[in-house]
Specification:
Strand order of the largest sheet: 3-4-5-6-7-8-9-10
Radius of gyration: 18 Å
Number of helices: 10
CATH class: Alpha Beta
Structural class: alpha/beta
CATH superfamily: Metal-dependent hydrolases
Distance between the termini: 27 Å
Shape: globular
Number of domains: 1
Oligomer: single chain
CATH topology: TIM Barrel
Order of helices and strands: EEEHEHEHEHEHEHEHEHHH
Largest sheet: 8 strands, parallel
Length: 298
């Protein structure tokens, strides 16, 4: 079997922060990347309101085996503030062949700090548009210039409070580095594809400079647990519009969903992608080719 057509079948496992034990019905292409998960390690002090008791690298490795995934992008949550020690420790454990990272820093972070993060596997910086200290547009542009020099990207987090992504459209279209929009841009349901946020997402994809990440379904779904099917139309539409600019992630250990007492089944989340992207070739593009270009180009 050629590398291009090779697949990995998940395993039957009970894993932390996921319902069920069965693997996905859909095998993953070899090299598949979970482009959004967190690590919460009790060895590092957490801040903020979301409490996750333990979501360590060994626990995530079990989850990855269950889904048949090969690699991952570790994303710094807001719980640690701008202290990226837990993220860096996770990247050291996983190794740069298997994982890259997205850190959280102030917009005025020094070039020296960014270079140090880059040397240890960080390939993106996360920017919250409606949390903690909301950045200025000039601050984001300056951060984008620094990140562009290192071949990285900026990763933007919207809000459940308002459709803030719409307000940042012009800035995102004119950044010097690639951008990634987390969690469907928090496009609200039931408006979905007819929302202002969705219109912005399609415009950003059309620019050829922005990626949209299909992750965190429970953050904006109105139909909700267990399959969040009201996001199907938007997901399929985004993929059809720009399959070369779509990423997928689990959001493990699903901290926001856990607060509501509805931890999802990881296999159900993975199999949802097969509904949005029916062909193996299209799923390989989303799970392997696009992450390769964005996070492993060096």
């Amino acid at each position: 079997m050629s590398t291009l057509s090779a697949t990995v079948q998940g395993e039957t496992l009970a894993v932390p922060h996921s319902l069920g034990t069965r693997p996905p019905a859909t095998p993953a292409p070899l090299g598949a990347v979970d482009c959004h998960h967190h690590i919460f390690d009790p060895r590092f002090q957490k801040y903020g309101e979301i409490h996750v008791p333990s979501a360590t690298v060994p626990e995530y490795q079990l989850f990855k085996r269950r889904l048949g995934l090969s690699r991952s992008i570790v994303v710094a949550p807001s719980n640690y503030g701008t202290d990226n020690a837990c993220l860096m420790d996770a990247l050291d454990q996983l190794g740069q062949e298997a994982a890259r990272g997205v850190a959280y820093t102030a917009t005025d972070v020094s070039v020296e700090t960014l270079e140090s993060l880059h040397s240890r596997g960080v390939r993106g910086i996360r920017v919250y548009l409606d949390k903690n200290q909301i950045p200025t547009r000039e601050g984001v542009r300056e951060l984008g210039r620094k990140v562009a020099d290192l071949g990285g990207s900026l990763q933007f987090v919207g809000s459940s409070r308002a459709e803030v992504l719409v307000e940042w459209e012009d800035t995102l279209l004119n950044l010097p580095c690639p951008s990634v929009i987390d969690h469907f841009g928090w496009a609200p349901q039931p408006a979905g594809v007819h929302s202002k946020t969705a219109r912005t997402l399609f415009k950003l994809l059309e620019s050829g400079k922005v990626y949209v990440k299909l992750s965190g379904l429970y953050l904006s779904s109105a139909s909700g647990f267990p399959d969040y099917s009201d996001l199907d139309e938007l997901a399929a539409g985004l993929i059809e519009a720009a399959p070369e600019r779509i990423l997928w992630g689990t959001d493990w250990p699903h901290p926001q969903s856990a607060i509501r007492g509805q931890v999802p089944d990881g296999a159900v989340l993975f199999d949802r992608l097969a509904i949005w992207a029916p062909s193996a070739e299209l799923r390989r593009r989303i799970l392997v080719d696009n992450p390769d270009r964005l996070y492993w180009s060096d």
